[in-house]
User: What shape does this take?
Amino acid sequence: MDADTQIGGANARFPDTHLSAISAAASDDAARRRPGQEALIAAYWKPVYRYIRIRWRCSNEDAKDLTQGFFTAAIEKGFFEAYDARKGTFRTFLRVCLDRFLSNSRKFASRQKRSGELIEVDGDSPERIFEREWTRSVFEDAVVELRANFQKRGRGLAFAVFERYDLAESPESYDHLASEFGISPAAVTNYLASARRELRKLVLERVRGVTSGDREFRCEARAILK
Amino acid sequence: MISDKVLARLKTAAELPDLSGTRYRIVEQIGRGGMGVVYLADDVELGRSVAIKVLDDAQEARVLAGLEHPGIVPVHDAGVLPDGRRYYAMKLVRGARLDVVLEKTPHLPDRLRIFQKICEPVAFAHSRGVVHRDLKPSNIMVGEFGEVLVLDWGAPGVGTPQFMAPEQASGEVDGRADVFALGKILEIVIGINAAKPLASICRRAMESDPARRYAGPLELSADIAAWLDHMPVSAHRESVGERLVRFGSRNRTLLALLVAYLILRLIVIFWLGR
Amino acid sequence: MGKFWFAVVVGAALGVVDGLTSWFTPAVRAQLAGIVVGSTFKGAIAGAIAGWFAKKVNSVPLGILVGLIAGLLLAWGVAAMQHGYYFEIMLPGSLVGAIAGYAGQKRQDVRISS
Assistant: This one.
């Protein structure tokens, strides 16, 4: 797999927590609509891109083009305004729009003819794949923000411990980490607890920014942490 | 990019409750309830194991704290985590879930007695104005000494479709929604090819119109008790044949004596009288 | 009606029925009336013994046994008087006593405790 691109990401978080990005993006007021759309695109760029690559087996360049094309179409054709919160989560709605867009896209169809039939990946449904990639991107962005926050507050050591334990493929034991950093195992426990707490807060804030209300937020929060 | 493995670990880690300022130490996650996650924890002060449930909202703790009954899990302690979530510590139930226990109990009267024990705490809660709303086999535990405990009280309007009474969709529920769920559970308890009176009891508990159901869990339990005693069941109108059979099973000894008399009489008349 | 009298009544009633069944044995059909009367008394007395026992001892199996033995002995007495039909009289007769014994045990005496 080619290297993923860095578009979207950690710094693009919708600042106004009173008005979710979704309702902003659907607003008649252009001053509100623009930032809302940008926030949604930023939040969903990576998941959409990865979804296209995984589910539809496209190359890096093709996936980038299609992602860009999709979001352009979303703005031009007013996908965001068409969302009805009563019918389900925004995430599912977006994926359905995406699948429809891809099936209709001429460029995509010609690419399909070249590469053959669509294959289901490991028996995962499209919904599952999209949810997983969305979760992944939310956590990635939250971790980047966590690092920045902790560095700013002079808590670099706490983040380093967190990085060595929770972000490692095969983490060492507490005792091992304690001796490596020259601190007590109790301190390791504390650093991890505080980093995890902050991570949780950041993850939930991001989810809040792209959900349309309390019920959807609770639903998505549960899904992302399950 | 975060790998799948790391992602899974981060998800669990972000969810772990931070109990560092309390007397509880998390050991591991043991389950996921209606509105929260349940962890096994050590109570370092009292030296025992407890179950810690972390909630999305504070409702359930308040509900449970007001209910004291052997069939309702006792709440020891409650508090607020640093991240704002509420938790409560409750008795760790060592036992098995109802569906597991039923698999190991083939004898129908024993299964029915277990079922009757489920009705008691539910009825008690109703008397205190609390409706469970999410009764199902996975929310019922049978302890090592046969005690029955009902868990996960106060689910906020989100039941389990299979066990949900029709009126729950509109949100206007009272105790009879629990009766419906109990009927569904009873259906599992009695199995297929159950005796007609039991099937009638089930049907009555699961009527779409709440007014036609049993008024409460105790009435349902009473009909089960009647069937166990070979007495007439209120939900079932029996035929003459069924009534006679019931009389026979209720008076087995008498039946045996009468049959013995009849046989002897017949022997005397036909064989010895020749 | 208490245990005692209930057992007596049951014994007598069964005795009547038992006596009537001798109609099926043509050889004794002529003496039907006498047989029925005798059988009734036999049943009543067996019931009395079983009923008295039931007041003293609360045990269904024992009550049945006592009634059975009482019925058997009485029937043997009757059969001895008839010089015959031992089996025909004793076998069913013992069961009449047994059922009367069961009835006596099962009957609830209403007790008023002071």
About this structure: The two ends of chain B are 102 Å apart (CA to CA). The domain at 95-228 of chain B is CATH 1.10.510.10 (Transferase(Phosphotransferase); domain 1).
